[in-house]
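BUG-426 | component: ligand-complex export | severity: low

The export step for NAP jobs runs without errors, but we want the raw record kept on the ticket for reference. Input record follows.
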Amino acid sequence: MNDINVAILGIGTVGTGAYKIIESQKDEFPYKTGSKINISKVLVRNKNKKREGINENLITDDWSEIINDDSIKIVIEVMGGIEPAKTYISEALKKGKSVVTANKDLIASYGSELLDLAKENKCDILFEAAVAGGIPIIRPLKQCLAANKIEEVMGIVNGTTNFILSNMTDEGMEFDDALKLAQELGYAEADPTADVEGYDAARKVAIMASIAFNSRVTFDDVYTEGISKISAKDIKYAKELGCDIKLLGVAANTDEGIEVRVHPMLIPSEHPLAGVKDSFNAVFVKGDAVGDTMFYGKGAGELPTASAIMGDVVDVARNINFDCCGRIGCTCYKQLPIKKMDDICSKYFIRMQLLDKPGTLASVLSILGNNGVSIYQMMQKKRRNNSNAEIVIITDSVKEKNLKDSMTILEGMSIVNKVSSIIRVY
Ligand SMILES: NC(=O)c1ccc[n+]([C@@H]2O[C@H](COP(=O)([O-])OP(=O)(O)OC[C@H]3O[C@@H](n4cnc5c(N)ncnc54)[C@H](OP(=O)(O)O)[C@@H]3O)[C@@H](O)[C@H]2O)c1
C-alpha cells in the first residue's frame, strides 16, 4: 500500500477542519482509498502565529517546499482569494499534482482554465466545497444526475443572508439589527458586502449552472441583487400573502437560453425552500427524468466544509490508486446563450405610497395595464398617514422589461410618492 502525501494551503477555518478529519479518519482512509493519507506540509502566510493542534514541523511559508516535493500528490487549497491561489493551483497541476479546493471566487471566474490545465496534465481538480459547503451538490450534478436534462437549479446558498432573513421573519427585526446580530454571532464578516449583496451566492450559482446545463456560466453572467433593501414591512406583507422572502439563486435552462440570477424572492410558505432557516442551505434541482430533488444541510463552517474537501480527497486518492485521474473533467460541452434579464418573466410584489385622492389607483392600474402588466392580487391597508396610502400589488407573470418601463413612468408621476419595494415572486 502506497501512502498518499497531501499539502494543505491555508490552515484557517476550513484547513483546520480538513486537518482534523485527516487525523480522526486516519485508520479508515486506507480501507476507503487503498492508501494512508499523510499531511506533508501546511502552507501559511504567517509562520509565527500559534496554531493549536497543528504539528508545527509541518508548517511552512515557502511554496517552493511544496511545489518541488514530488512525493506530494494532492494539494488542498483552502487559502481563498484569486492570487496567489490561482498561480499555486496552476503550478501544482502542471507538476501533475491533483487539486482539491473550496475556492468559489476562483472557480466561478477561472474554472474553465483550471479544468483545461487539469485535463492536459491528467490530474483531478475537484471543488465540492466551493458550493454550499458540506452539502453534496457538484458530484450529484456531474455524476448521479448525469442522465437528466437539468431544467432548473434553485437554492439558498448563502447562510449569512438566510440567517438575517430568518431573524427578520421570526423576530420581526429590521435588516440592520439582524445583520448586527449575525456579526456578533460570527455568521457575518466585518465587511458583509459579498454576502448581503448576493455576490457570494452568485459565484455558487455560476458554478452550479455551468455543471447543470453543460455550458459555461461565469460570475459576470449572473444578475445579482442583495437583501439590504428588504424591510421588516415587506416580510410582514409577504406573510399575509402566505409567503416567505428568501435570497434565492436561480438557474433555469430555457429554449431562449440560460436564466441565471440571484435576488430576494417571495416563495410560498409551503415550498420546501421556505422551511430552510438560519444558516442552513438547500438546493432544489429539477431534472427531466428524476423530477424534483432537494439537497439540504450546512453550507459553511469548519467541519461541514472540510467534509466536502475530504470527500474530494478520498475520490482523488482512489483515482491515483487506479491510475485514472482526470476521469471526470470539464462537462461544459455546449455554448448556450445567457438570457437577458429584460426578457425574463416573473411575478412581482410592488409596495408603493400613493397620494390618497380619488382616481389615483385607477391611474396606476392604467399605466400598468398599458405596459402589459396585469394584476394578480392587491392590498390597500387602512394605515394611512398624512395624505399617503400604501398599496401592495402582486402582478401576474410579465417580462422584466414591461415591469421596468411601467415603474419608470409611475416613479415620474406626482401621484406616486414612493416606490418602496419591488421583489420578484416565485
Ligand atoms: N469558512 C467557511 O465556512 C467556508 C465555506 C465554504 C468555502 N470556504 C472557502 O474556503 C476557503 C478558505 O476559507 P477559510 O474560512 O478557511 O479562510 P481563513 O479562515 O481566512 O483561512 C485562510 C488561511 O489561508 C492562509 N493564507 C491566506 N493567504 C495566504 C497566502 N498568500 N499564502 C499562504 N497562506 C495564506 C492563512 O494563513 P495565516 O493563518 O498565516 O493568515 C489562513 O491560514 C475560501 O476560499 C473560502 O471561500 C469557506
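Assignee comment: Attached the raw record above. The chain has three domains: 4-134+302-321, 147-297, 341-425.
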